[in-house]
Amino acid sequence: MTKQFSLLALAASLALPAAAQQDPKAGKILDAVSAKYTALKSFQASFTQTLENPAAKLKQNLSGDVTVSGQKYHLATNGQEIINDGKTTWTYLKNENEVNITESDPTNQDMSPAQMYTMYKKGYKYTYVKSLKDAGVTSDLIELSPEDRKNDVFKVQIIVGTADHAIHSVKTFKKNGTRTTFTLKNFKPNVPVSATSFAFDKNAHKGVKVVDLR
Fold first, then answer.
1. How far is Cα 212 from Cα 85, in angstroms, rounded to an integer?
2. Prediction pTM value
3. Is the pLDDT of residue 19 over 60?
4. What's the CA gap between 125 and 160, in Å, rounded?
5. Strand 209-212 vs strand 98-103: parallel, antiparallel, or unpaired?
6. Residues 135-147: what's their mean pLDDT?
7. What's the CATH fold of domain 6-212?
8. Which residue from 105, 91, 93, 85 is spatially nearest to 12, judged by alpha carbons?
9. Cα separation of 115 and 92, whole Å?
10. Which among 139, 136, 155, 135 is positioned nearest to 147, based on CA atoms?
11. What is the sign of the dihedral through the CA atoms of 130, 128, 180 and 94?
12. Cα 50 from Cα 45, distance rounded (Å)
């Protein structure tokens, strides 16, 4: 079975019906964020994901690195890698030495970290909350509310730098009490990438089990 990151599932939870009237201030900031990232040829960052549910006494941490170029990406942690070249997705499970291969679906946004800075454009309302200091940096907190009341996610909070419009963190709130915080750091714009950056090399994984689900 293919394991999924909660942070990637965030995008799918926000793929909702058309949006209504929005907060102009929040929209202006989100547009600047989107313009910043879409203008880059590529970028790389380390991330930390924290999954919490106080009622269930659950707290899990996950960290890794992600490289993005257009709709292509390579996401890696200690346990697995997800690689997408825009057409094919490889999910490599290190402990099992197994790779699952699926077709890339551009409409299935949960599989693309490249969509996290454009998801606001469809399906939910956004509101400017306040200015704050995040790790000593003046930042803006924006809250998104899905219009589909049946959605498991009822709120998303995004913190971005006021001066550079860089995404600091994305936090989702689910009806079951689960809170997932995805924090970006060590951001590097326009890093060198090639075709091999976004393709799984079977020869580099001796004895790997290939499960082709296409």
1. 16
2. 0.76
3. no
4. 17
5. parallel
6. 93
7. outer membrane lipoprotein receptor (LolB), chain A (2.50.20)
8. 105
9. 21
10. 155
11. negative
12. 16
